[in-house]
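Because discrete structure vocabularies remain unfamiliar, we first show an illustrative case, written as a sequence plus integers encoding its fold.
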Amino acid sequence: MLDPSRLKSKTIAIVPIKTFHRAKSRMSPALTLENRMQLAKWFALNTVTTFQSIVETYALCDDEETLAQLHSLGVPAIKSPFSGLNESVEFSLAWARNNSASYAFIVHSDLPLLSHNTINELLHHTGSNIVVVPDRWEVGTNLLGIPYPMNFKVMFGHDSFREHSITSFCDQAAEVFRSKTLGIDIDTIEDLYYVLKRYPRSEFSLFCHDILDHDTLSQIPIDNNIDV
């Protein structure tokens, strides 16, 4: 198991950030571009700063505009020369290795319930293996932990949880860590409704009520079959 006293010098967390004006496109036209950008910036700031209080953490982007916006938010960031997510993540893993990391987390930014307690719980389950945290549907990968030295190719995209969970490192299978909070991400307006309904007092829900007007909130579809 990782020694928490060595985490700051030995572990690096990388948070990929999509260009803000292209973020959360699946939530249009229910949300305006301004609202989607506000959500994306909240996610970036919240995820990086929450992880940063425990491990060395950087946002990862692939364009100068986003890099400048991240810096204006006070978010430490690195810029990838590649435009694809997997290519950029591979670049960041090499960057982390060159900066003396012994373990790296790749963390999706849009985790509305991320907290210090969640991260500490994750660290207690993190050993020297690859760790895969699936989304609540067990289709995508919300977080990936990778030890160094490693020979591992990331496979974010369709059905990435299956792809990542069947991989191995030094003849050891990847460890799957299922988390109710890390498993919840926001990709669609239905995801947003799920969190607003089930976790109305979360910081994320309170932020949404601050930025979204009544008409927008009232138009969020209500699915009576949703698991709340």
About this structure: Residues 33-52 form the longest helix (20 residues). The longest strand covers residues 141-147. Residues 1-9, 224-228 have pLDDT under 50 and may be disordered. The chain has two domains: 4-176, 189-218.
